[in-house]
Design a protein that fits this description.
single chain; 99 residues; alpha+beta; SH3 type barrels; five-stranded antiparallel beta sheet; 5 strands; 45% helix; rod-shaped
Length: 99
């Protein structure tokens, strides 16, 4: 009787092992990098300040003129300012403007 329960436990382990391996691979390939990217984006959005040159998700380059809790005002050309959602800022651009 002891051998039968030992064999069935080993059989269950062998059946569950591939599922656990797939879950572990999925975590390290998909979930962990995505959460790291979300943290980096949230940190970038919270550290926006006046004078930063940014790129929006719509492809517009601009310089931040003011920062509000949910939006930023961008200067995209001489005498042209637009207000965009803070979440639409895709990245902070380090190179100077090429006008």
């Amino acid at each position: 009787m002891l051998q039968a329960s030992s064999t069935s436990a080993a059989a269950i382990f062998v059946q569950v092992l591939p599922i656990l391996a797939v879950v572990a691979i999925w975590y390290f390939v998909v979930i962990a990098p995505a959460s790291k990217q979300r943290r980096q984006t949230a940190q970038m959005l919270s550290s926006l300040k006046k004078g930063d040159r940014v790129l929006t998700s719509g492809g517009i380059y601009g310089t931040i003129q003011s920062v509000e809790p949910d939006s930023v005002q961008l200067k995209i050309a001489e005498n042209v300012k637009v207000r965009v959602a803070r979440s639409s800022v895709a990245s902070v651009v380090s190179e100077p403007a090429s006008d």
